[in-house]
Structures are given as structure tokens and as C-alpha cells.
Amino acid sequence: MLARIRFGVPDRPGSLGRVTSAIGSVGADIVKIDVLESESGRALDDVFVQIRDAAHLERVATALDALAGVAVTGVQHPAPPVTGHADLGLIDQVLSRPERGLQTLVDGAPHCFGAEWAALVEYGSDLAAVSSVLTVSVASPGPEHVALTSPLRLATVRMTAPGAAEPYSGTALVPIGPGPLALVLVRSRGLDFHRSELWRVGQVGQIVGTVLAPV
Q1: pTM of the predicted model, to two decimals?
Q2: Residue 76's closest CA among 165, 187, 201?
Q3: Is a pLDDT exceeding 70 seen at residue 83?
């Protein structure tokens, strides 16, 4: 099973070597490491690892957190694909059948971008508030859980399920072209959407919106 661990590490030679050694010491295999950002002498990275089960994942995260200067900031399991082409594959599926392209986008985006579920919403004419929920993905808990108060823009937003005390771990709001449609991606637990992830899904939204606009 594939998992993703996000961690901060000193941005200096040898830091990643200590991380990879710690992961190997608990019997996990590294699939990929993404450097998300590097600022003020620290780097924020995502490491994708093959693990056996949830207990194994906890041992990996604990081993990393025990390293001096390393701080685990979040864990996601299961993790999104690491091929680097999942977003292109999703675009191909959407455009191959444009008459149902938006539903394909909603159904396929969660797997592609490591979310639990997604929804397609429509904004009012001023793009300030959601006017309706058009469709949701299969794993969605229901349209009533799409409780957005944010204007239409590419952004990570805070969204809280009805009756819940805490917001979802991560929610991305993604315009489909210039509007009024938007894709909402929700991670119920784990990691928020990093700005690099947000940029990727934003590009998909722009491409889909541009091509499907005349349909």
C-alpha cells in the first residue's frame, strides 16, 4: 500500500540521506520524494513509501519524527498516484467523452489528486457564493456536506461538515475555466493541499473549462 508522509527537514547536505536510512531501517520502500518548498534553511518534502498496513505506516512516521531536526507535519494513506501523469490521464478521459466530461472529472479527480471525494458546484452571477451543488463523486457523504462560503478562486479553503466541530483536513476550490463552475476536492483527514498540488489541479480546471466551454 502506498502512503505519503510530509515532513520538514534542515535544508543542508545529508538531511535526506538520514531520512531515507530511517525509512529503510523500519522495512519500508521509498517510491518517490517530492521537494515542495525550501525557505529560510528548511525544506518541506513529501515522501511516498510502500507500507504493509497502518501500524507499519505509524512506525515509519515515528522513525522520521525521532530524527533531530525532522518534523512530520502530516500523513496521507492511501496516497495519490506517483506516476506524474495521472492528471494528464484524467484530462484524456474527460475530453474523450465531452458530453459527460464534468461528471468524469468529479469521479476521477479524487483518485488523481489524493482526495476522499469531490463535488461540482455552480456559483451565482457575482461569483461570490455557491448557488447549487450540481453533482458529487461516488464516495461523497452527500451534497449537504458541501458547505462553502468562499468566493470563486483557486484556493485552499476551510469547509466544515454539518454538525462537525472541526473542518476537513484539506479542501481545494478549483475554478473550471472562468466560472461559474468549480470543482471542490475534499480530504477528510491527513494533509491539506500544498500550493504545488493546488497549481496542478488548477491547470486541469483551466484546460477542462477551456475545452468544454462550447459544449
Answers
A1: 0.85
A2: 187
A3: no
